Sequence to fold (312 residues):
Amino acid sequence: MVVNPPLSNGAEEYLSWLAVERGRSPNTLVSYRRDLVSWEGWARDNGLAPPSAGPGDLERYLAHLRGGGRSPTSMARTITALRGQYRFLVDEGVNTADPTADLQSPKLPRTLPKALDEEQTARLLDSMTGTEPWDFRDRALLELLYGTGARISEVVGLSLLDFRDDDGLLRVFGKGSKERLVPMGSVAQHAVAVWLGTQGRPRVAPERWRSRDDEQAVFLNQRGHRLSRQGAWGILKRHAGRVGLAPVVSPHVLRHSCASHMLAHGADIRIVQELLGHASITTTQRYTKLSAEHLRASYERAHPRASGQMAR
Fold:
């Protein structure tokens, strides 16, 4: 069993605060813990007490990371973790000054995954024609990822009680455990119904469940446990490889494709924002990467003076 190196009390209290008060996801907490463990280990190796470190100490540490080839994205996350911890210590009255106040985060390129076009999406989803239980599972998984635009963590986290049979809505829990309802299209609904029907999930369910969580999981792996994010990623990659799309497909690409295709067919961006679970419309605009052509066409359809043909 791997044992994480100990953190200072202040760092542990900060991580607990993030989990309890701010509802940060387990993945975020794992990443922040890794960043803080690295920082405190370096500080101790250099004769420093992490809670009382100064701005110069932090700059030296960040220079050490950059010299080791740390990527800008990783550097930005590390600075966010450090800044959050020291601000927390000031707010709690442990520290009187924040040594991260003048730290500058690297500018990150605003890169986005390229959405599949509709033909590529159809080629991927329509290729799953098997009739075994695991074929039904894979089809339901991919149809949900594309049909709802949900994150892969949200889809593998689904439980049987999250489906509302009366209105075709699906309950998902997003970042910070925020709950939202998303509609399922008829194709996704059918795929899920087949997987949950007598020829799908019941045929591969174990005689004895390992846990209540596994028993309630919508998607199972071949050991009868809840399917993991990594397992779902592997399923997607396998099917994408069969139709020549493996280099460009990821769960995030399917989410991006869902949003992009809806916008191309005239969906209101606020509806897409709600579907994706974004707190800010700005995030949706960047995520969906509205094209200049789409914006121009929308403007010309909607603005009374766009065409120069107002009634006299």
